[in-house]
Write a sequence for this structure.
């Protein structure tokens, strides 16, 4: 199937289009899955890496200047009813990596990227949120080597811990910060 599907393309054998499917399936950007994909897109776009479609299960979210980048997302507000804002926690486990280019799973469990970008959607008021406003996001860029050195076996890391050694950057500074961390 052609990866460049036009939004007006008819789903064969139906009266509906790919655009209608996308609207039905992906319009709730606050859901964990869609918010995570949006965060990946924002980081990828900042790095100029969105001309090719996203690869679902690759060893990292992006290859940028021969470095692997992992993007993680979290938010205080969720799609579901909440009594209080969510605690911001990110998964950082060591894992075996699937390489989509070779079709081979690595034998070693490790953190497979060179850096992580932790994306936090900062709104805490669900009555007026807008995930499409990059000014409402914070981005934390952390070298994987730092995580490996200080959080060797940890499978998760909280935002409060990240804030002890890293400051957020705005969307316009993501590329410069990643470049700085990787060099």
């Amino acid at each position: 199937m052609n990866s460049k599907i036009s939004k007006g393309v008819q789903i064969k054998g139906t009266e509906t289009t790919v655009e209608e499917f996308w609207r039905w399936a992906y319009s709730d950007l606050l859901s964990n899955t869609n918010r995570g994909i949006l965060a990946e897109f924002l980081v990828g776009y900042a790095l100029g890496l969105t001309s090719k479609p996203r690869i679902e299960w690759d060893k990292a979210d992006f290859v940028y200047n021969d470095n692997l980048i992992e993007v993680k997302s979290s938010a205080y507000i969720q799609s579901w009813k909440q009594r209080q804002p969510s605690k911001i926690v990110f998964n950082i486990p060591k894992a075996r990596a699937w390489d989509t280019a070779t079709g081979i799973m690595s034998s070693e469990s490790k953190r497979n990227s060179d850096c992580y970008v932790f994306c936090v959607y900062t709104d805490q008021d669900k009555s007026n949120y807008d995930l499409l406003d990059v000014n409402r996001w914070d981005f934390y860029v952390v070298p994987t080597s730092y995580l490996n050195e200080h959080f060797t076996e940890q499978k998760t890391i909280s935002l409060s811990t990240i804030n002890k050694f890293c400051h957020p950057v705005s969307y316009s500074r993501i590329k410069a910060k990643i470049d700085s961390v990787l060099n």
